[in-house]
Amino acid sequence: MRPSRNTTGSNSGGHLRERVVCGDAGTRRRSRPDLPSAICRPGNGAPIRNDARNPALKSLGAGHGRVSGPGGVRGQGAQARDVRRPFAPAVVTYHGSAGAFAHIACRAAFPRARAIACDSLLQVIEAVRTGTAEAAVLPCENLLAGRVPDIHLLLPEIGMASEIGLTIVGEIFLPIELHLVAPAGRSLDQIRRVHSHPVALNQVRRFLSARGLAAVEQSNTATAAALVRRAGEEADAAVASELAARTYGLTILERNIEDNPVNMTRFYVLARDPVVPALHEPDILTSLLFELHNAPGALFRALGGFADAGINMTKLESYLVDGQFVATRFLCEFEGHPERDDVRQAIDILARHSTRHAILGVFPMHATGTRTRADASLGGVQ
C-alpha cells in the first residue's frame, strides 16, 4: 500500500513546508530537504464529455460492462477532444473556510484559479455538478490519521449514483504542519481546550495528552480558528495552519505539534468530466469501485487477474452495502491505464466475478519519489 502524502502551499511565502510541486504546470520547487517534494497531478489527457454522467468511465450496465473497446475510456468518437493540455480549472471549490488545508491545496495545485469555500460536502458536490465550479478538492486520507471518514463514505455515491456523476481527475499530496493558535496575548499555560477537525486532532494526540488539553471537534481547522478568534475565551485555542492563523488574526503559540513531522494528506481532485491521460503516459493510477456477493473466495477470484498480470494494487478498502452482510463493496486503486491490454484483461476478470463495477477516475500518480515497490527493493515499503 502506498503512504499518503500531501502538499500544501501558500503563494505568499508562508512556512517552508507550505510549498508545492505542481507536476502538470511544470513548476517544481523543493520545499525542505528532509521532506519529499509534494506534487499535484491532475490528469492531462483528452477530456471526454459524459452526458450520462460518465458512461465513458462507468461500466455499470447490467454490472458486467467492459471498460474499453468502442464504449471504453477513450473510444467515445466525437465526444473525445484530441487535446493535450494540463487540467487548469478557473474555479475550484472546497469544504471549509479560508485557511483550511483544502484551501491551501487548492492554491497550491491551481494558483490561478478562484477558490470557493462551501459549508458542506453536499454543497461542494453540487457546485461542481451544476457548473458553478469546474473542480473540487477533497481530502481523502492522511498519513497519520488514516482515511477521512466523510469522503470515504461519499466515494461509493460518486461512483454508483448517476445523479452525482463526478470523476477523479487528479490527486494532490500536501505536507501538513499543524500549529496551536490563539488570540494575541495568550500563553500556553492558559489553554485548556483545543478546537479543530477530528482528523487534525487525531494527528496531535500526543501533544494534547501530554499537556492535559481537552479536544473539541469542529467541522474543519479554519472554522476552529475563526471560532476561537470570535469567542475570545482565554482557555480556548485551535489547531490550524499558518495561513488560518494569519487569516483570522491569531498568533502561533506552538509550531509543528503534529505527532510525526512527516505528516501528509492526500486530496482528490474531482470534476464533472473525465480528463483521461494518454495510454502511453507513465505512472497512471486507476480508481475503481466494485461490488461482490458475500461468498467464500469472491474477492480472491475478482482480483486474481491483477495478481496474474503483475499489476500493483495500491489501495483496497471495503464497505458494507446498505449496512448488511449480503454484499460487500470495495474501492481499489492500481497502477496502469485501463486501456492497457493486461489491465483491461484484469478488469474483465473482475467484471465477471462482480455484480457491479465503476471506474471512478484515471489520473497520473504523484511523483514525490517516496513510493517503493517491494519487488524492486528488498524490504521496500509501499
UniProtKB/TrEMBL annotation:
EC number: 4.2.1.51
Record protein name field: prephenate dehydratase
Residue ranges annotated for the Prephenate dehydratase domain, each copy included: 91-272
UniProt cross-references to CDD domains, sorted A to Z: ACT_CM-PDT, PBP2_Ct-PDT_like
UniProt biased composition (Gly residues): 62-75
A GO biological process held by the record: L-phenylalanine biosynthetic process
Region listing for Disordered, in residue ranges: 1-79
Compositional bias of kind Polar residues: 1-10
InterPro entries to which the protein is assigned, alphabetical: ACT-like_dom_sf (IPR045865), ACT_dom (IPR002912), Preph_deHydtase (IPR001086)
GO molecular function, one term: prephenate dehydratase activity
